[in-house]
Specification:
alpha/beta, Rossmann fold, 2 domains, 9-stranded mixed β-sheet
Length: 462
């Protein structure tokens, strides 16, 4: 099967979040399963200035190769993409994002055709590629090259939809008649994700539970009706985890390696983390770890409201991440109050992140909603038992056999669940049993790739 991924970011070329991890890893797994894959993404400044081995097609299109033979084509336009940031600055989104990504969607189809790579499926990702399914259905319907091409759009986070003023609709290149309730119109604004959902043959999200949640008023962000109308075409596939990076038996960024067969190294990693945090070194004191974007979605309202009461327990807590300024200030104030058992690192630090995952006993992830989540999967692999709210991908990966789950989103429920975890931590045999269950979990990309191939076959028949 010929598959083309269209995405606004792809690891290792450009990354702001989990989207890039998916679009960088899933194509490799699909290639390993025997599929022919190509990728198209914008030619950002970070790609131009990065140390990548770039080639150029006869048509002058830059490309790189990943895996055995996956060509990553770059849609170039310096006026749109030669910027320090991908989508906007710290002051907000770029004002020309509609123009930028409408150009990208049109250019992607041109690049694919110029490369002569006739796709069975174009796999689109998030709102930045939402126009591609519409272009296929409307503008390329009579093009023999795309006659049998079908589209699938993956929603990585429904909270981001690509909303623009209706007066800009001309920038899409589509006739005004497509700005309607069945297409791109959303409360008198343009909604690129809504259009992508409307025109795609198949829609999927990054976990089975999230695919159901987005069809509810609580987590539908206004699109629940559109999704319910297409519910037969909506599926959920859990993201995979790259075990070449996240495996304590191979991890070169942690103090001591360990595995399911030999957990001795984990105690050394805990000691190293306690020393980094300037905590008393004591293997009998449970260490709770957080590696997260510091935002409301990630449970920071709940966490900051509970934090002082959490810190009054006989435990140690380390938080690593950056995000909203208000949470920075709240956390700094509480960290100053509890210096002996609360360490705060307001930064992005890949090495420290690995050490937190390896060194903590409990990985805290109280997200309000979580389409998939990778932190809990990493925690499981590292034997750091996840403590999560029952939502999205967290509900699909963590249960009482490998971690701790609270079902009501409240400070009291969070505190009670932490209390339960602390009691179990004191029971070493039961704790070790849960750790081993956790480490046996398999979220490899190969498993996800098989599910995607099934969806692609379904799309081909649509």
């Amino acid at each position: 099967m010929n598959l083309v991924f269209c995405a606004s970011e792809v690891f290792p070329f450009a990354k702001t979040g989990g989207l890039a991890d998916v679009t960088g890893a899933l194509p490799l797994a699909l290639e390993r399963s025997g599929q022919e894959v190509a990728i198209v993404m914008p030619f950002y400044q970070c790609v131009q200035e990065g140390k990548f081995d770039l080639g150029r097609t006869a048509e002058g299109i830059n490309y790189a190769v990943i895996g055995k033979n996956i060509k990553v084509y770059f849609a170039a336009n310096d006026a749109y993409f030669k910027r320090e940031w991908l989508y906007g600055t710290t002051h907000g989104d770029f004002g020309d994002n509609l123009d930028r990504f409408a150009y990208f969607c049109q250019k992607a189809l041109e690049i694919i055709k110029a490369a002569g790579f006739r796709p069975d499926i174009i796999h689109c990702h998030d709102w930045q590629t939402g126009l591609i399914p519409a272009y296929l259905k409307i503008r390329s319907a009579t093009d023999p090259f795309y006659k049998h091409t079908r589209s699938l759009i993956t929603i990585h986070n429904l909270g981001y939809q690509g909303l623009f003023e209706k007066g800009q609709f001309w920038m899409t290149g589509l006739k005004p008649e497509y700005f309607n309730q069945e297409g791109f119109e959303f409360y008198n604004k343009i909604n690129l994700l809504k259009g992508g959902i409307a025109f795609s043959d198949i829609i999927n999200t990054v976990s089975p539970t999230y695919s159901r949640e987005i069809q509810t008023k609580e987590l539908g962000f206004g699109l629940e009706g559109v999704l319910r109308k297409r519910q037969r075409d909506v599926f959920g596939i859990l993201n995979g985890l790259d075990y070449s990076i996240w495996d304590p038996a191979k991890d070169g960024l942690i103090s001591a390696r360990y595995s399911l067969a030999d957990l001795n190294g984990k105690a050394k990693d805990k000691k190293a983390l306690q020393e980094i945090c300037r905590f008393p070194v004591n293997e009998n004191i449970p260490v709770l770890g957080v590696v997260s974007r510091l935002a409301e979605q990630k449970g920071l309202e709940l966490l900051t409201a509970s934090l002082e009461r959490i810190c009054k327990n006989n435990l140690q807590l380390v938080i690593l991440g950056t995000g909203d300024l208000k949470y920075h200030k709240l956390l700094q104030r509480i960290a100053a109050k509890f210096p002996k058992n609360f360490a705060l690192f307001l930064k992005f630090d890949e090495t420290l992140a690995h050490q937190v995952y390896a060194g903590c006993d409990i990985f805290l992830m109280p997200s309000q909603y979580e389409p998939c989540g990778l932190g809990q999967m990493i925690g499981l692999k590292y034997g750091s038992l996840p403590l999560v709210f029952k939502t999205g991908g967290l509900a699909d990966t963590v249960d009482s056999n490998n971690g701790f789950v609270f079902k009501k989103y409240s400070s009291q429920e969070l505190l009670e669940t932490i209390g339960q975890a602390l009691k179990l931590f004191a029971q070493k045999d039961k704790w070790r049993f849960l750790q081993k269950n956790a480490m046996r979990a398999d979220f490899s990309w190969e498993t996800s790739a098989k599910r995607y191939i099934e969806l692609y076959e379904k799309a081909k028949k649509s």
